[in-house]
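Entry for inosine-5'-diphosphate complex. Fields follow.
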Amino acid sequence: MESTLILLKPDAVEANLVGKVLSRIEADGMRIKQLKMFSLTEEEAATFYAEHQDKEFYDGLVEFMLSGPIVAAVIEGLNAISRMRKLMGATDPREAAPGTIRGEYGTGTPKNIIHGSDSPESARREIPFFFEQEAKLNE
Ligand code: IDP
Ligand code: MG
């Protein structure tokens, strides 16, 4: 069993897609272990996306992530990290395969509906960033 961190971004909440996206994850056989809705602070958004701070899209990304509430969840399942990434589809919804979450619901970048940890190292950092009780997951 593996755990991964997902975020349903402000565009997902705005478009009433929270239920649909979570339902897709459950239908794939993965389990919602923790779940919460809240708004990021500017500091949290900056820290969470620190790896992108030198990219030209960074300011727009942070502004988008602060534009409304998000949903964070810990998702558990066999190979949950790579499985979630596959279910999400490519970063740019225009390049995401049909049937993937981003391919179905994303409208562009940064508005691509969902974040998912991209590696075990990322999951180990991202899960405790939002969920204190899960700090020891994937160790
Ligand atoms: P990922 O979310 O698929 O891991 P990353 O490259 O880590 O993709 O980028 C983080 C987020 O930044 C993306 O999900 C997307 O919202 C946004 N983003 C990535 N590339 C671009 C871009 O070229 N223009 C605008 N936003 C982008
Ligand atoms: Mg990424």
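NOTE: The domain at 2-137 is CATH 3.30.70.141 (Alpha-Beta Plaits).
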